[in-house]
Amino acid sequence: MLPLNHDKYSWYQILFLPIFFNGILTVHLPVVGGLLSAHLLSKKAGVEVEVGWPCSGPLLRMAEEAARKLLPAFQTPTGMPYGTVNLLHGVNPGETPVTCTAGIGTFIVEFATLSHLTGDPVFEDVARKALKALWKNRSDIGLVGNHIDVITAKWVAQDAGIGAGVDSYFEYLVKGAILLQDKELMSMFLEYNKAIKNYTKFDDWYLWVQMYKGTVSMPVFQSLEAYWPGLQSLIGDVDNAMRTFLNYYTVWKQFGGLPEFYNIPQGYTVDKREGYPLRPELIESAMYLYRATRDPTLLELGRDAVESIEKISKVDCGFATIKDLRDHRLDNRMESFFLAETVKYLYLLFDPDNFIHNDGSVFDVVITPYGECVLNAGGYIFNTEAHPIDPAALHCCRKRKEEQWEVEDLMREFYSLKKNKKFTLKRASDHGEGERAKDPEDAPSEKGGEKRNFKKSSHSLLSCPSQSFNSKLAVLGQVFLDNT
Ligand SMILES: *[C@@H]1O[C@H](CO)[C@@H](O)[C@H](O)[C@H]1NC(C)=O
Ligand SMILES: *[C@@H]1O[C@H](CO)[C@@H](O)[C@H](O)[C@H]1NC(C)=O
């Protein structure tokens, strides 16, 4: 149990005293995300929640307390945060101002959720400001580098790619756009996506290039990059996603796992990067793509992954990192993401009935201080450590009036959209819908009771598919008729 009522130290001081100087991204942000996810899932898990949940609760208060400790890192001239913050004293005076791109751009999912649940906008504001600062500092050809000085905004490492040091920035632009139904975040991503395709993509592989010139600097595929097909499927680009996935799967088949680095022209591992610490990314992509395509190849990757894990990495006390894929030697360690992410995504790949895959056909209605609210309708957004966030919860904790205006705005937008098909996010749905999309086989069903006497539109309201708005509109008594 966490020492919630300790009189001298608060819980985070006790948890983190030994590790005060670890990076925000790798240690403290996951704590916030884990607490938020646990807070939102607690009722479903049978915990007796306090009155006011999901707008209040002990785990939410802990998440807020932890997040407040990170805020001093954002006090820089650019709004881009330091990579490290001392949880008692704020940023250390001697702290390096160099932060990796992902360390700047991976806050919006947790911080926006926190802002929406607590009503304090400060978290979402700092996260957005950091995202925009990166956007403003992209190169003329539209790419971002690997590390930047958060004081001077000078790029310190100018390698542009989709993997280590950058990965979750792109992930959070897309996931933030879906979670918040935010066109600005999505259009940033789509612009990056154009430049990435133009300069880094060759034969459905993605290389590393110089961010100003676009010249290839490293023709390697990193195991961490294997999240990309999943991300592409979230924006509806399933064909490209599948082709890249198949490239990565050939590497898996060659070694029985994904080496940390793979030299693409040579078709082999890179010196000192031959290990496979049982990372989740390729399996994560398989899960998303399987929701979108039901292509059995994706289940085959899942089967291969289970076999490798069982046959190569299983030891008496757990599942060991594969130190070298060439001879399947093991290392004496098991990474935390193996249980938190790899196993979770594998489970979800093989469990079509999991509540996480809910397509909006069932949902719960809870009473909050602000009125009725829909939860658990699906469309869960996974943070970068695979903690699911229910996007519908973000609409539970604001005043009703405000909500109704928002819904009215959406209705107006929807109808004007149908008239003149100009819409920033249209692209995304042109290629079919991603994992969050409704399953086409699940035809509109009217059997959900009187609160659901609406027809599901065959196009989602906003192009980043989300069930929560439809369900919410239904609860508010609005009816969608889409006969097109
Ligand atoms: C980089 O971002 C900062 C913060 O938004 C901004 O002040 C600065 O002008 C940007 N630099 C360039 C070259 O755009
Ligand atoms: C693609 O790259 C070429 C140069 O190789 C450049 O002229 C063109 O503007 C780029 N297009 C986009 C959309 O980035």
UniProtKB/TrEMBL annotation:
Protein name: alpha-1,2-Mannosidase
Glycoprotein keyword on record: yes
Annotated GO biological process: carbohydrate metabolic process; endoplasmic reticulum mannose trimming; positive regulation of retrograde protein transport, ER to cytosol; response to unfolded protein
EC number(s) given by UniProt: 3.2.1.-
Residues annotated as binding Ca(2+): T384
Membrane-spanning segments: 12-36
Named cofactor requirement(s): Ca(2+)
Record's function text: Involved in the endoplasmic reticulum-associated degradation (ERAD) pathway that targets misfolded glycoproteins for degradation in an N-glycan-dependent manner. May initiate ERAD by promoting the first mannose trimming step of ERAD substrates, from Man9GlcNAc2 to Man8GlcNAc2. Seems to recognize and bind to exposed hydrophobic regions in target proteins.
Membership in a protein family: Belongs to the glycosyl hydrolase 47 family.
Keyword Calcium set for record: yes
Name of one Pfam family that matches: Glyco_hydro_47
UniProt-recorded Gene Ontology molecular function terms: calcium ion binding; mannosyl-oligosaccharide 1,2-alpha-mannosidase activity
Keywords: Calcium, Endoplasmic reticulum, Glycoprotein, Glycosidase, Hydrolase, Membrane, Metal-binding, Transmembrane, Transmembrane helix, Unfolded protein response
A single GO cellular-component term on record: membrane
Region called Disordered, residue ranges: 426-465
Biological classification of the source: Eukaryota, Metazoa, Chordata, Craniata, Vertebrata
Biased composition (Basic and acidic residues): 427-452
Gene3D superfamilies referenced in this protein's UniProt entry, alphabetically: 1.50.10.10
Subcellular location, record wording: Endoplasmic reticulum
